[in-house]
Structure formats: structure tokens, C-alpha cells
Amino acid sequence: MKVLNQHKRIISYPLSEVGPILSTLATDNDLLIANDKWPRMKLDKGLQVGSEGGHGPIKYFVTDYQAQKSITFQFDMKGFNGFHKFQLTVSDKDKTELLHIIDMSTTGIATVKWALVIRWLHDAYIEDAFDKVENYFLGSQKVSKWSLWVRILRKVLTPKRKK
User: Fold this and answer.
1) Which helix (H) or strand (E) holds 17?
2) Which of 18, 22, 45, 78 has CA 20 to 30 A from 136's CA?
3) Nearest by Cα to 19 from 104, 107, 89
């Protein structure tokens, strides 16, 4: 199945101020990923080409990194053939477009996993990340609402903590 999944958000700050956020990805001070809600992104060599890692069960490696502009990851999972990418571009004077793209093809059971589970969780994951960036700059508390399906999946798939 061909998949093209895009999320965009306009941040009302210039690229020179938003760009450094991208450089915090997969660090202890990650200002992009909503680590309070989702698994941390981990990269074995940090933000550099060839670094391997992922978040939760999603595995990938870095194929391109343009500091403060973009980072591209190649999926490293059976049946997921393609990439995902964070990209920052100048939208307008003093505005930056934050974009996340998945461009891939799925085969076999990966198609079922994407259609029923991963797509829904991914969309919530990215919107939460974009909320985190927007809140960082605006000092607001924007919280994207999760769909009922995402709430059910998280309840079913989240391991029970021992008391």
C-alpha cells in the first residue's frame, strides 16, 4: 500500500528561532517530541547520518541531516519501505512551517499494522510534538485531542506498571 502522510504547523517565529528545536531531537532536552506522552526517540550516535534508533517499536536510521532545517529517517522494519522526515522552512516573514512527512510503501502484515494501529498512533504522536513546539514559543497549553481509537489503542497496548 502506498502511504503519504503529512502534518504541517505554522509557528509564528522565524526559522532562526525555531531551527534550534530540531537540534534537540533525541537528546535529554528534546524540545520536539512529547516525551511525557510518548516513547522517547533514541539514536545510538545522536543526530548524524548513519545513527540508528527509533521510538517504541518503530525502528529507523538517519539518512540525511541538515542542521536546523531537516532530518530524514529510513525505516528499518520488515514491510515498511520508505522514510519519514521532519522539515522546517520559511513560511512567511517571521513564520516557520514545521512539516512531518511519511513517504513509504507497506507490504504484507505491515499494511494491516499501519492501517489499524500505527497510522492512528503516529498522527497523535506528531500532533502532540507540534503542540509541544507551539507551546514552547507561545507559552500556551495547546493539547490536540486524541481520537477514541487512539485512546483505546493506548489503553490496550500500554504495558501495565507494577505497583
Assistant:
1) helix 15-22
2) 45
3) 89
CB 88 within 8 A of CB 96: yes
How far, in Å, CA of 159 to CA of 106, rounded?
Answer: 26
Give the pLDDT of residue 158: 79
Give the Cα separation of 98 and 15 in Å (integer). Answer: 10
CATH of the domain at 13: 3.30.530.20
State the pLDDT confidence band at 138, using cuts at 50, 70 and 90.
confident
Does residue 162 lie within any of the structural domains?
Answer: no
pLDDT at residue 38 above 90? yes
Report CA-CA distances (Å) from 8 to 5, 20, 61, 66, 85.
Answer: 10, 18, 23, 19, 12
Q: Would the pLDDT of 160 be above 70?
A: no
* Alpha carbons 132 and 41: distance in angstroms, whole number: 15
SS3 per-residue string spanning 8-42: EEEECCCHHHHHHHHCCCCCCCCCCCCCCCCCCCE
Rounded CA Rg of the chain: 16
Contact 96, 90 (CB under 8 A): yes
Q: Please tell me the total count of domains within the chain.
A: 1
Instruction: Determine the residue type at 157.
Output: L
